[in-house]
Amino acid sequence: MSNPRRKTKIVCTIGPSTSSREMIWKLAETGMNVARLNMSHGDHASHKKTIDLVKEYNAQFEDKVIAIMLDTKGPEVRSGDVPKPIMLKEGQEFNFTIKRGVSSENTVSVNYDDFVNDVEVGDILLVDGGMMSLAVKSKSKDLVKCQVIDGGELKSRRHLNVRGKSATLPSITDKDWEDIKFGVDNQVDFYAVSFVKDAEVVHELKDYLRSCGADIHVIVKIESADSIPNLHSIISASDGDK
Questions:
Q1: Can you state the angle between helices 174-185 and 44-58, rounded to 10 degrees?
Q2: Which of 1-10, 149-158, 223-232 has the highest mean pLDDT?
Q3: Which of 11, 105, 191, 194 is most enclosed, with most CB atoms within 10 A?
């Protein structure tokens, strides 16, 4: 008796350790349904190689077997690069600056020029998905002074957000649009759109895809509390949620 068609799909992120022809074939043969390209990492040349290999695998069959999903980086606020991890200890002062390239024991850069404007004294900054937290004590033109509440090891390019608030970043960044155009040119099957806050971003992307004549489905990623009030309209506008 044949097995019923599996409704749950297996999505595999293709990175440096899985981007070879041999590994993509192995993943496909063992159940991969979707090859995910994480646009937060890698470049268009490496992702193009993956796309070509997946299409080469699919060419063996009459029907497409493995779909290709392009996952946008989205609007993120991140700390800068540090030569080595910085240990944050409870009670110590630690600062974030919008000046580029700053890295010391008590101050690091952030990648977002409006960071100082978006935070207020008393706000709680969550670092690396809440692994660390800091209270904002004061701010100046280019510096936010904090006190560590929950310490930890601060590594390069950690995600930053303010508890209960969101940064005033565009829903689709310039980098995202470049990646989306790359996906159109290479005929991917899905976009996974990061940090979707409302349905407008989905409509904007779908309008663009229609103007290109691209048959690409849009999956939304619900990643913050800001999405909750608009959840129903977001899901209705999209082709699925993640």
A1: 30
A2: 149-158
A3: 191
End-to-end CA distance of the chain: 33
Contacts (Cβ under 8 Å, ≥6 apart) of 116 = 98, 139, 140, 141, 142, 143, 144
The SS3 of residue 12 is: strand
Distance CA 144, CA 200 (A): 32
Domain(s) labelled CATH 3.20.20.60 in the chain stretch across: 11-75+170-237
Closest CA to 9 of 193, 233, 190: 190
CATH of domain 77-162: 2.40.33.10
- pLDDT of 49-95, one tens digit each? 999 999 999 999 887 789 999 999 988 899 999 999 999 999 999 99
Residue 225 pLDDT grade (very low, low, confident, very high; cuts 50, 70, 90): confident
